Amino acid sequence: MQFTDLVHSIRHLDTSLRKGVSSVANCALTVRNWVIGAWIVEFEQDGEDRATYGDRLVPDLSKNLSLPGLGASS
Fold first, then answer.
1. How many whole angstroms separate alpha carbon 33 and alpha carbon 68?
2. What are phi and psi of 21, to 5 degrees?
């Protein structure tokens, strides 16, 4: 193996794995957001078919959770 082949192989491996990690992370965050949304709907509906969403629920959750990517404006 030549030095340039080694450099190319390492770059290719790094790029491939970074894309894979990014894809898995995006999938996991999508699932997280869907589940959180389902929990919020259940909380707000309290077993009813429809809910009157509180004006303060999302800002209150955002303030109390303080998690990156889960802000009221996210």
1. 12
2. -65, -45
What share of the chain has pLDDT > 90, as a percent? 38
Contact between 40 and 32 (Cβ < 8 Å) = no
Residue whose structure tokens are 């999938």: 27
Contacts of residue 9, defined as CB under 8 A and 6 or more positions apart, other chains included, come to: 1
DSSP classification of residue 68: T
User: In this predicted model, what pLDDT tens digit does every residue of 4-60 receive, in sequence order?
Assistant: 988 999 999 999 999 999 899 999 999 999 999 899 888 887 777 766 656 677 788
- Which amino acid, 65? L
At residue 33, the pLDDT reads 92
Whole-angstrom Cα distance, residue 43 to residue 36? 10
Strand ranges for the chain from DSSP E: none
